[in-house]
Design brief:
about 120 residues, three-stranded antiparallel sheet, 2 helices
Length: about 120
């Protein structure tokens, strides 16, 4: 499978999972009270869809929660050379790998966003 195809498939998986998650939240199919529950619900949908997109034996969909990625330069915010992300997705076959990082924010109140939540 070509790299461009993997990128499109990964994007499609994320977009479909997001659409399903928002519809389930909007219509009461899911109730989450914190960010970790929100991550778990999205991760479950992503993992299910990702496995459905494993069309060949060499296709593998992998998902990690709360993981670190190396940065090319030191982060201004954390003064670290690693970034912590909520969800990391890897879609690969024998020759290519496509990665996507997802950072989630869970706002409990309409005015509870940056910088008001500090």
């Amino acid at each position: 499978m070509q790299k461009i195809d993997q990128t499109k498939l990964t994007h499609e998986i994320i977009e479909t999972a997001y659409k399903l998650l928002t519809h389930k939240l909007a219509f009461g199919g899911l109730i989450t009270h914190n960010e970790s529950a929100f991550q778990l619900e999205l991760g479950h949908i992503l993992k299910t869809l990702g496995q459905l997109y494993e069309f060949r034996l060499s296709d593998k969909f992998h998902l990690e929660f709360e993981t670190f990625l190396p940065l090319k330069t030191t982060s201004i915010k954390s003064q670290s050379e690693r970034a912590r992300i909520d969800i990391l997705i890897r879609y690969q076959d024998g020759d290519h790998q496509t990665c996507a990082a997802i950072e989630l924010k869970f706002f409990k109140k309409s005015n509870h966003r940056e910088p008001n939540n500090r």
